[in-house]
Specification:
Layout: H1 34-58, H2 63-81, H3 117-141, H4 144-165, H5 181-190
Helix pairs in contact: 1-3, 1-4, 2-3, 3-4
Length: 200
């Protein structure tokens, strides 16, 4: 099975028979590449490495709970509450092949439409827990320089994500999505199976 979707083949939710000449495809990232995955990892890994270093500075045994939180959230909880709403989730296969959660298992059914309030709470709560855990250890250990670099890298990763990736993402359910309404409507017209007005 290929590592990423065939860029010449429309999404499973798309009513078009070909991607040729599709203007929406130039505005929304429908297909993903290894290069995009590498870029994502390049700006997302530093905060995790710095956060892990801060935790280890207090005690290496404290790293295991955080790794459990990270894997549990990004590998399972986030997939259920946010990724399961994405048209990419409707693609065949048992794992995701997008740049953000590549390889994560698809354990739940595809749920087109917006996220519910509970799902939003889990999403933001999970992000706060993943970020707040190492932050607490950096403060307790008085690792001020590491704390500064961690804060800068985390802010930089968040800004890069929301300014350059979220503005082209097809998961309109995500609260961080930055695609304009006109483009969203054009995408929905081509992907009627990805549209639903109310949260599940």
């Amino acid at each position: 099975m290929p590592a990423f979707l065939d860029p010449r083949k429309p999404l499973a939710t798309c009513r078009c028979k070909s991607c040729e000449g599709c203007e929406v495809g130039s505005l929304v990232t429908c297909h993903f590449t290894g290069r995009q995955l590498a870029h994502f990892l390049a700006f997302m890994l530093p905060p995790f490495l710095l956060g892990g270093a801060g935790i280890v500075s207090v005690g290496p045994w404290w790293l295991a709970p955080w790794l459990g939180i990270v894997i549990g959230f990004f590998g399972f909880a986030e997939i259920r509450v946010m990724c399961a709403h994405c048209p990419h989730y409707a693609e065949p296969g048992f794992t995701l092949k997008c740049w953000a959660n590549y390889g994560a298992p698809k354990l739940w059914r595809y749920r087109p439409g917006p996220m519910s309030r509970a799902e939003n709470a889990v999403f933001f709560g999970g992000l706060a827990l993943v970020t707040g855990y190492p932050l607490l250890f950096l403060l307790v250990a008085g690792q001020w320089f590491l704390l500064l670099v961690f804060a800068i890298s985390t802010a930089g990763a968040a800004m890069t994500l929301t300014m350059f990736l979220c503005t082209r993402c097809m998961n309109f359910a995500c609260p961080l999505n930055g695609v304009d309404e006109e483009t969203r409507q054009a995408f929905r017209e081509r992907n009627p199976a990805a549209s639903r007005d109310r949260a599940p």
